[in-house]
């Protein structure tokens, strides 16, 4: 397992660049998931609760 130190340095630099960019994909996924859940809540609210009217 004799790897060139220059290759290891290049791989470390690539990894550092990826980490420096941050978790943008995870944040986008969380935002999309949240929007879907809120959208489904509104659909449920307008399709189920409002047609039933006021409960007494």
Order of helices and strands: HH
Kindly state the number of beta strands.
Answer: 0
Structural class of the helices, strands and pairings? mainly alpha
Q: How many strands, which pairing sense, and closed or not: the largest β-sheet?
A: none
- Which percent range fits the helix content? over 70%
What's the Cα radius of gyration?
24 Å
Uncertain spans? none
The number of helical segments is 2
- Overall form: rod-shaped
Average pLDDT taken over every residue = 87
Distance between the termini: 77 Å
Beta-strand percentage?
under 5%
Written account of the structure:
The protein is mainly α and 56 residues long. It has a domain at 23-51. The chain has two helices and no strands. The protein has helices at 5-21, 24-52. The longest helix is centred in the C-terminal third of the chain and has 29 residues, at 24-52. The termini are far apart. The model has no long low-confidence stretch (mean pLDDT 87).
Summed up, what is this model?
This is Cytochrome c oxidase subunit 2A. With 56 residues, this protein is mostly helical. It contains two helices and no strands.
Topology of this structure?
Blueprint: H1 5-21, H2 24-52
């Amino acid at each position: 397992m004799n790897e060139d130190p220059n290759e290891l340095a290049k791989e470390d630099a690539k990894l550092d660049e990826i980490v420096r960019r941050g978790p943008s994909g995870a944040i986008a996924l969380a935002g999309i998931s949240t929007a879907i859940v809120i959208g489904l809540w509104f659909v449920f609210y307008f399709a189920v609760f409002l047609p039933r009217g006021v409960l007494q």
